[in-house]
Amino acid sequence: MLHKKANKSHILTKKASKRIRQLGKPAELSPADRKTVKKMLPYDF
User: Fold this and answer.
1) Whole-prediction pTM value?
2) Contacts of residue 22, Cβ cutoff 8 Å, sequence gap at least 6
3) Phi and psi at residue 36, in whole multiples of 5°?
4) Cβ pair 2, 27 in contact under 8 A
5) Which residues contact 25 (CB under 8 A, 6 or more apart)?
6) Which of 1, 13, 16, 17 could connect to 29 by a Cys-Cys bridge, CB 3.0–4.6 Å?
């Protein structure tokens, strides 16, 4: 499962361009959080 990264919507002036680009890419959900997130989804994968 993929998710968006936090910290890309505000105070971008002090963040490096490389960091902002990396924050725009999707990240994989950690195995520890998968079970919790699957319970929150209204449909099954």
Assistant:
1) 0.65
2) 5
3) -65, -45
4) yes
5) 5
6) 1
- Enter the tokens of residue 19: 């960091």
C-alpha to C-alpha distance for 44 and 7, rounded to whole angstroms: 29
Q: Give yes or no for a contact between 1 and 28, defined as CB atoms under 8 angstroms apart.
A: yes
Nearest to 41 by CA among 8, 3, 12: 3
Domain extents in the chain: 2-40
Task: Decide: 22 and 14 in contact? Cβ < 8 Å.
Answer: no
pLDDT in tens, 1-45: 999 999 999 999 999 999 999 999 999 999 999 999 999 999 886
Dist. CA 4–CA 13, nearest whole Å:
20
